[in-house]
Prior knowledge:
Blueprint: E1 13-17, E2 20-26, E3 36-38, E4 48-50, E5 58-59, E6 62-63, E7 66-71, H1 80-84, E8 91-98, E9 107-108, E10 117-120, E11 129-134, E12 144-147, E13 153-156, E14 164-175, E15 178-182, E16 185-190, E17 196-201, E18 205-213, H2 214-219, E19 224-231, E20 236-244, H3 245-248, E21 257-261, E22 263-264, E23 269-275, E24 285-293, H4 297-300, E25 304-309, E26 313-317, E27 324-328, E28 331-335, E29 346-352, E30 356-361, E31 364-365, E32 368-370, E33 376-377, E34 379-381, E35 392-393, E36 404-405, E37 409-417, H5 423-429, E38 441-446, E39 463-467, E40 476-479, E41 487-495, E42 505-514, E43 520-529, E44 537-542, E45 549-555, E46 563-570, E47 573-581, E48 594-599
Parallel strand pairs: 2-7, 3-4, 7-8, 8-15, 25-36
Antiparallel strand pairs: 1-2, 5-6, 9-10, 10-13, 11-12, 11-14, 14-15, 14-16, 17-18, 18-41, 19-20, 19-42, 21-37, 21-40, 22-23, 23-39, 24-29, 24-37, 25-26, 25-35, 26-27, 27-28, 28-32, 29-30, 30-31, 30-34, 32-33, 37-38, 42-43, 44-45, 45-48, 46-47
Amino acid sequence: PPPPVFDDPSDVVLINWNGETVALMSTHGQGTGTQSILPSSSTVTGDQLHISPFLGSQADGQAFDRMYFFADRFSANFEPTRLLSAQNSANLTFGDYDASKQVSSFTGSDKAYLSQIDLSWTEVSDADGYLLFREDQGGPYPLATLVGAQLTSYSDLGLDIYAEYTYYVIPFSLTNHALYMGAPAVTTGHTKGFDFTATGSGEAQVTFDYNFDNHLLVQLDQQAAYVEITDESNGTIIFGDELTMTDIAEDALLFDYALDVKGTYHSGGGVHAEPNLDVSGLDAWTLELWFQFDSDPAYLNTYYHELYSDGNVTLMTDRSQRVLIANFYGQQFRWVGDSPNWTEWTHLSVTYDGTHATVYHNGKAAMMYNVSTLEEAYSHPVSNGSLNNTLQFGQRLALTDDKHGNLNGSLGMIRMWDQARTQDQVAYDYEHIFDSAVPGLLAQWTFADQDLNPVDPLTGASLSIQTDNSAEYPIRWNAAYDFFAAEMQNEITAWLDRPEADGASRDFSIKIYESGSGRIISEGTDAATFSHPGTATLTVAEVTNAPYALDVTLSPATFQANKYNLYRHRGTETTLLQEVVMTANEDGTAYLPFTYQDAYAYGNRNTP
């Protein structure tokens, strides 16, 4: 964590900044003021600070390229020249420690997840970013360095269950005209406990209940975990199964996290994405989006949802949610028939080959009609369909009236091409994320890194994520999966290897492993107590009109045993009369008595 006073080599913080490893050091609130920063080893007093360990550009044995020193006050006798005249291979810059620069509303989630804590805070407008620390973490690097004043949230993953963590966040600026380090804000967050119960039912059945955090599964390398339940009384594994994304989500998508896009443009803007691409003069192009609308009916039916806008070409849905509109220099094309359910994850692609434009939905060409001519077609002639350089996704570029709003949903992937992709190419590739360069690809952006300026590793193109109103519409990321539920409650019923006596108890344990690595994610134990209703009863009655026949009636005491073997014993002779399969009553809560008539041709009524 950030110490109250940076007065020791172990207090130096290292971050990666603009391609360099940068060291940050601060008096961080020393009350007397720093009069001297001494290059040689000296006794540290209230007004002296020696930094000789760093003059070789190393901290904790790690090299750095540049060093920033921040102090809350420098006295009149401050001697920077004394330091700078020393043997110093580090590039040293001075700045202010400013206690007024502190985030507010710093909060951590409380028992929302088994192994994750979500952190959020309000923006410090002139900050270059934020240093985030966790109290139990060592080493010179923060838990995270978040670059961008608007980046005001972070999800800490892979934590222990049922634990408390303390966090600090510090705003900072390394911009020449505003060099400062702010004061730390502190908060705590809690993970929830792992619930596992074993409940006995009758003499031979046990039911296990356990919970599992679906957000945890998303972050695992193979996005899968193995659940194993063991009967500790005999060491037998009585249940084993793998949890995968298909178990917990309606659709296992191509990307784990999506950009949360919110806002109403006419009333203060909101979150949107701006590509840093030069697309002027393209005579052919393709736009691709994976997106999902929020299901708020009030917003869906009030505003146009803006997907893409550059001032010339606009892609949106209208307030009825039944049509899709593509504007090409005043030409409008609308969806024919019922619109898809945009609240589900959807892929949309628009191509322009220099003369015609085509819209594809989930890999298939969509029938559109020309608003002016009412002509219906899969591909329409378009005049002057080139793009402008002022591209925006999720928000309209220029306001026309108060019916236009932001996308208000999630963006999972954006892809741009300098060619009109064919129908076969769109159909084949829309469910793929490329991991190597493809001819014609201008950029492909996903949001897994939760970065304000994601860079496409294939093309080097960057995307700027912005908000016009950080207080009302902060930049956030969400898990992109359509979970059946944020937390899975599982119930498993198993049979014992043998019936237990009334009041007997057995111990059971559960372990959840990460698939592949075998790392234990969660574990728990519980005991189950069983109740035995007793054995079945047999009654034998003579059949009065047939002295050599007996009615043998079986009355079961348990609903767990549904088969019985009925034997006749006479002297040393044993005969299996019948395997009886029981019939349940109408309520399905008990088995009905069963009567077997035993008739034999020897002996008499006095023969046992």
